[in-house]
Amino acid sequence: MPTPVSDAGPGERAPASAPVLAFFDVDNTLLRGASVYHLGRIAWKRGHLGWRDLSRFAWQQARFTSVGENHRHQLAVRDRALELVAGHSVAELEEIAEETYDAYLQALLLPAVVERARDHLAQGHEVWLITATPEACARVIAERLGLTGAIGTRIESVDGTFTGALVGPVMHGGHKADAAGRLAGEKSVRLADCWAYSDSRNDIPLLELVGHQQVVNPDAALARYAQARGWPVMHDRPRASRRSSGT
Known about the structure:
Rossmann fold, alpha/beta, single chain, disordered N terminus, seven-stranded mixed β-sheet
């Protein structure tokens, strides 16, 4: 079997003549853990969730961090996200997302992965987050990092207030590949020139869609899949974790 090697990254490749898109998963790829859990922490502090709700968030976060995502986890993410936003205004969710980024997510960013995103931008590529996290929250992360945009799970709003109903599917698995393909088509981009970054076996359809795959902190199934195909694998931790371990 071919052994995955560390990829040189976009900064050391000749820039493409056609537009290039780079798609980054968020949870356990761009940052450590599940972003929706930290949204729940801020929502709890604001009195929008009860202690029992926060406890469920905490259990799901611990499970996700240790073993990665699976179908049950994604259903839980969907349910918690809908529970979190139903009845609240779009502006309020944006405030929660901004506070969540400042209080928690910024410290959980994986430096080498963020640097890859910035390398893509330096090459003139577009960098898109693509995640099951509510799209309004993913956009805050993208804006804070200076990225091009975000594709996330969309939740219906009427007159500026979320109804709790989904608009389209949870942005997960094959739905990520579908959304990435549509965006590439709208921009007349060659998928063979594009990139995708993910930690999860559920994102194999997205990884196979593009010409350049980068596996990040993979779960066991994706690690085996990547090894069989010779896809590059990188491992990274938040800076806070490095400091606490003395590295």
